[in-house]
């Protein structure tokens, strides 16, 4: 069986290839349709999934794969077991369609309820985030470098929130007793990556998300010294029957 480091070395180029596949459809709104839950899906989602899923199943045939678009079609493993892959072939469809570049390809490995490996690729931004076993890094136009969460500066926390979703009044109520210096909006799983790279401190998500939306970003964040908890500070666990997340808080080095 491959080690986590070996798996990461194989998964990163796979995620980057899937990211390139999405760019063939970037800016094209003709291939958009609505899923049963009312959310949009594009030809780019399907192209990325077509790159990722066969390769993952060939690389680790013993590990089940759960992917957003397959689940939407009623396809998926009957049970996931202790180890399984979580794939979101294109997170941030609204950002993809708006053309702001803040969409991502996400692959994560879950073991015993927690993400132990993750790759997040933002193809339009030229960024790849990866992490496992306590080490996270970013690859961009400046090369490859390690990233770490920061402790909040004295002037207060930078809070990151969704560009396209969220409840402003719920966010305000959650933050009322905290020292907040700035708010930064971002799309997709990049919100967790901003904390991992030390540019933000807190991401409260007080709305509906699915496990595949955040698993890869959570893995990168954990490898960079941060984490994710439920809003009341409890453990955040993957592998739920419906893969639906509770409200949660992603945090940097100082915790929640």
How is the topology of this model organized?
Layout: H1 4-23, E1 32-34, E2 40-42, H2 43-59, E3 65-67, H3 68-72, E4 83-91, H4 93-98, E5 104-111, E6 114-122, E7 127-132, E8 135-140, E9 143-147, E10 157-162, H5 168-175, E11 180-186, H6 190-196, E12 202-205, H7 211-223, E13 227-230, E14 248-251
Parallel strand pairs: 3-4, 10-11
Antiparallel strand pairs: 1-2, 4-5, 5-6, 6-7, 7-8, 8-9, 12-14, 13-14
Structure characteristics:
256 residues; alpha+beta; Fructose-1,6-Bisphosphatase, Chain A, domain 1; D-Maltodextrin-Binding Protein, domain 2; 2 domains; 3-stranded antiparallel β-sheet; 7 helices; 30% helix; globular
Short description:
Its EC number is 3.1.3.7. The protein is an alpha+beta fold. The protein has helices at residues 4-23, 43-59, 68-72, 93-98, 168-175, 190-196, 211-223; strands at 32-34, 40-42, 65-67, 83-91, 104-111, 114-122, 127-132, 135-140, 143-147, 157-162, 180-186, 202-205, 227-230, 248-251.
Protein architecture, described:
Keywords: Cell inner membrane, Cell membrane, Hydrolase, Magnesium, Membrane, Metal-binding. The chain is an alpha+beta fold. The chain folds into two domains: 4-147, Fructose-1,6-Bisphosphatase, Chain A, domain 1, CATH 3.30.540.10; 157-251, D-Maltodextrin-Binding Protein, domain 2 (3-Layer(aba) Sandwich). It has helices at 4-23, 43-59, 68-72, 93-98, 168-175, 190-196, 211-223; strands spanning 32-34, 40-42, 65-67, 83-91, 104-111, 114-122, 127-132, 135-140, 143-147, 157-162, 180-186, 202-205, 227-230, 248-251. The strands form four sheets. The protein has a seven-stranded mixed β-sheet with strand order 3-4-5-6-7-8-9, sandwiched between helices. The protein has a three-stranded antiparallel β-sheet with strand order 12-14-13, covered by helices on one side. Helix 1 (4-23) packs antiparallel against helix 2 and helix 6 (190-196) packs parallel to helix 7. The radius of gyration is 17 Å and the shape is globular. The chain starts with a helix and ends in a 5-residue tail after the last strand. 43% of the residues are buried.
